[in-house]
Design brief:
Helices cover 35% and strands 25% of the residues. It is α/β, with parallel strands linked by helices. β3, α3 and β4 form a beta-alpha-beta unit. The relative contact order is 0.16.
Length: 233
């Protein structure tokens, strides 16, 4: 069985709907909880698959959270080796930074359910399964496109919503792994952030997760399953 390591920054931002297709593809997943588990470079570089999950801190805040520097260093080694790596939200931002791109606060927070606009490259790959389907967005930061990477998707607020670097490197700014299951954990875990954005309605976000989440999760599963298949072809 192949090995997959998932770096988790906060407990409720887990693999979500991606867990099933990753297991079906033959990977045994082990979570590494940042701040609790040691980030052993040898383990991370040699794993068959690395997934870097989301979280509420900024890549540029290593002066407050020094462990981010440690995470960036092991990511640089991993990406330099061309090993299969998947990033979601903060994970994609960390990957972009490790690849030499700038990460900074965006023009506004993007929180809620909305579709992404696929580029031609996005339409011609696994992300085509997400076309027209609202996805969860939950970020205030944004990344520039890493050198040599392809932009796969955008929104009006965020020009780089997904990128690929060859077959083995894929980053999502949005959350295609969220299917609405356990969404209450997101609302509670991000309660302070939600309170800071007066135009957001917790009630509306909850209702949208129940209505939209299942279709979003189903599309996300098909998307990531196809990407995983591509790693073996």
């Amino acid at each position: 069985m192949r090995t997959a390591l998932a770096i988790r920054h906060v407990h409720f931002e887990d693999l979500g709907s991606f867990a099933a297709p990753i297991a079906t593809a033959g990977y045994h997943v082990r979570y590494l909880d940042l701040g609790l588990d040691e980030l052993r470079p040898q383990d991370i570089v040699t794993a068959d698959l690395l997934i870097v999950l989301g979280g509420p801190v900024g890549v540029y805040e290593s002066h407050l959270y020094p462990i981010l520097d440690e995470e960036l260093e092991v990511l640089r080694c991993r990406l330099a080796a061309g090993a299969p790596t998947l990033g979601i939200c903060l994970g994609a931002q960390l990957m972009a930074s490790a690849l030499g791109a700038q990460v900074a606060p965006g023009s506004a927070k993007e929180i809620g359910w909305a579709p992404v606009n696929l580029t031609e490259a996005g339409q011609n790959g696994p992300l085509r399964h997400l076309d027209g389907i609202p996805m969860l967005h939950w970020h205030g930061d944004a990344f520039d496109l890493p050198p040599a990477a392809e932009c796969l998707a955008s929104t009006a607020l965020c020009p780089n919503q997904a990128f690929a670097l060859g077959r083995a490197t894929l980053g999502f700014q949005f959350h295609p792994e969220v299917d609405g299951h356990g969404f209450e954990r997101w609302l509670v875990g991000h309660a302070v952030e939600l309170a800071s954005v007066p135009c957001l309605s917790v009630t509306a976000l909850r209702a949208e997760a129940q209505c939209i989440g299942p279709a979003a999760g189903a599309a996300g599963r098909v998307c990531i399953a196809e990407w995983l298949d591509g790693l073996l072809s």
